[in-house]
């Protein structure tokens, strides 16, 4: 904007000078110098008035950042068919890993019931052996099995290992698929960004510092995109699947206690949202302080130079 206004002002000045140089009276009387000086002062005042202040610059940057916000699925527009296949595989594996968590809780519940049954059988055996005799047999039919509690625990231990290895493999598949797909998409984004930067005019580079282009765009911004469409998606999907599966299991196993927890859960959600809002405000203040520190440093350097 400033460069265009300066070019237009220079053109007007050349036109006015050509008009007055054709008359020798103006040249002899020194009118051209006075006219040129007055014209330059008017142009400088106009350009200075049109330049935005620091607060307006910050506001314009905030408006541009809010206007250029992408929709959730627009960020995946660089994905090809292989990336889509890997994302679907990672999504399925993350959901399956979250669904295995209630099964682990079910095994844990069975083991705890078996430990309680061992103590219960020992107590019943000591109280009834004197009256019935030593030929009595304890049966654990309330556990759903004719095995003793000790044998029942030993039979469940192998399922712990099986479910643990299965969850590990599913999470490994989910995270690797999403990370590989994110790396491929960020690589295409980096190439497209470099091509667009190389096609810009010289004035575009004058308005931006080298640190903003090298570290701001090519490193920090793309790293945030890679983290956002990479392992964070797999982690969020696995946690959501785990929450839904555990909630369904708790309602099936004990719906009264589950309703008590659900009645308190809105308070937990509100507290979590307050924490998120506070962290976002802190990030905004940190960004503002960094921007104003740069302005202050530049001004102090100019004063020191003078």
TrEMBL record:
Using the UniProt record, give the first listed, main subcellular location. membrane
Q: Where exactly are the transmembrane stretches of this chain?
A: 84-108, 159-180, 267-296
Q: Where is this region: Disordered?
A: 42-63
Annotated membrane topology is: Multi-pass membrane protein
Composition bias of kind Polar residues appears in 44-63
Tell me the GO molecular function terms: ABC-type transporter activity; ATP binding
> Residue limits of the ABC transmembrane type-1 domain?
88-274
Q: Which domain of life is it from?
A: Eukaryota
User: Per its record, how is this protein called by name?
Assistant: ABC transmembrane type-1 domain-containing protein
Q: Which species is listed as the source?
A: Adineta ricciae
């Amino acid at each position: 904007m400033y460069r265009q206004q300066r070019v237009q002002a220079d053109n007007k000045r050349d036109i006015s000078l050509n008009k007055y140089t054709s008359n020798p009276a103006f040249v002899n009387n020194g009118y051209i110098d006075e006219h040129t000086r007055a014209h330059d002062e008017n142009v400088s005042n106009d350009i200075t008035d049109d330049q935005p202040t620091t607060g307006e610059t910050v506001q314009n940057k905030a408006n541009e950042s809010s206007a250029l916000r992408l929709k959730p699925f627009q960020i995946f527009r660089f994905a090809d068919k292989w990336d889509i296949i890997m994302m679907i595989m990672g999504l399925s594996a993350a959901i399956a890993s979250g669904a295995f968590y209630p099964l682990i809780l079910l095994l844990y519940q069975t083991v705890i019931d078996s430990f309680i049954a061992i103590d219960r059988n020992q107590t019943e055996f000591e109280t009834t052996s004197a009256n019935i005799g030593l030929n009595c047999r304890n049966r654990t039919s309330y556990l759903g099995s004719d095995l003793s509690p000790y044998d029942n625990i030993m039979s469940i231990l192998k399922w712990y290992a099986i479910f643990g290895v299965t969850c590990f493999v599913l999470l490994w598949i989910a995270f690797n698929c999403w990370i590989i797909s994110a790396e491929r998409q960020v690589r295409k984004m980096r190439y497209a960004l470099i091509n667009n930067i190389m096609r810009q005019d010289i004035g575009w580079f004058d308005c931006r510092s080298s640190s903003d282009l090298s570290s701001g765009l090519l490193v920090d911004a793309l790293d945030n995109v890679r983290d956002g469409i990479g392992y964070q998606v797999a982690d969020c999907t696995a946690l959501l699947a785990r929450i839904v599966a555990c909630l369904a299991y708790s309602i099936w196993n004990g719906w009264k206690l589950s309703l008590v927890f659900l009645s308190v859960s809105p308070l937990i959600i509100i507290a979590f949202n307050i924490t998120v809002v506070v962290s976002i405000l802190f990030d905004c203040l940190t960004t503002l302080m960094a921007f104003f520190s740069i302005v202050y440093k530049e001004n102090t350097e100019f004063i020191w130079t003078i």
